[in-house]
Amino acid sequence: MPRDTVLFDINETVLDLATLMPRFATALGDQALARTWFVMLLHTSTVCALTGVKTGFAELASVMLDKIATLHDRTISDEDRGQILGDFASLRPHADVQPTLQRLQSSGYRTVAFSNSSSSLVTKQIANSGLAENFDIVISVEEAGGFKPDSKVYKFAAARLDRPIRDLRLIAAHDWDTHGAMVAGMSAAYIDRSGAPYHPLYRRPRIQSTNMVSVIEQIIAADAGPN
């Protein structure tokens, strides 16, 4: 069976968290805390996945706002909380995303949004970003009862897509996500959005770049070659 389906991580890979920075500057006095908050959110979602805690990404996002505020001797108001979480549902895409999604679709690929966000949140994110027509399918890990990088959520996505997991490829800006996909048996491609070094102990995909155009062209070239 040909590789005709590409999955995209959404937060940071497709959508730009820079939208949140002014909100964090107003609420907590430091716009850089937007990225710290998101790292904390990813950490706690991983802990919940590994220990069987049933929760949702939006709930954890709110909990982590309280935690980061406390760590910086602040209290976050209900208004600021609502604005930050509202903006999280309305992030803008990176400039290189829509053209590459169109390139994949015109080349015969199915494009899949695959996110730790809840079904409701990721659907809003895709709609608000203007990318609804560029994704053929939207999959949330919510239905799988876990979070990436738990292997069961990648296997859940493969079952939803009715494809062997080895015939799927995930694109992500997080090394833990590409590593998790590869451990589960999926192919992966890494886009370096931050400039941080790739974790030396994680599995590293062959396809990687600092921009999505290069990543997509490498995927198309690789899939056109002998399997």
Describe the protein.
- The protein folds into two domains: 5-15 and 91-224, Rossmann fold, CATH 3.40.50.1000; 17-88, DNA polymerase, domain 1, CATH 1.10.150.
- The protein has nine helices and eight strands.
- It has helices at 21-28, 33-51, 57-71, 78-88, 97-106, 119-129, 151-161, 175-184, 212-224; strands spanning 5-8, 15-16, 92-93, 110-115, 137-140, 168-172, 187-191, 207-209.
- The chain is globular, with a radius of gyration of 17 Å.
- The chain starts with a strand and ends with a helix.
Report Rg.
Answer: 17 Å
Strand count:
8
Shape descriptor reads globular
CATH class of the largest domain: Alpha Beta
- CATH architectural label of the largest domain: 3-Layer(aba) Sandwich
By CATH, the superfamily of the largest domain comes out as: HAD superfamily/HAD-like
What does the main sheet amount to?
6 strands, parallel
How does the SSE layout of this entry go?
Layout: E1 5-8, E2 15-16, H1 21-28, H2 33-51, H3 57-71, H4 78-88, E3 92-93, H5 97-106, E4 110-115, H6 119-129, E5 137-140, H7 151-161, E6 168-172, H8 175-184, E7 187-191, E8 207-209, H9 212-224
Parallel strand pairs: 1-4, 1-6, 4-5, 6-7, 7-8
Antiparallel strand pairs: 2-3
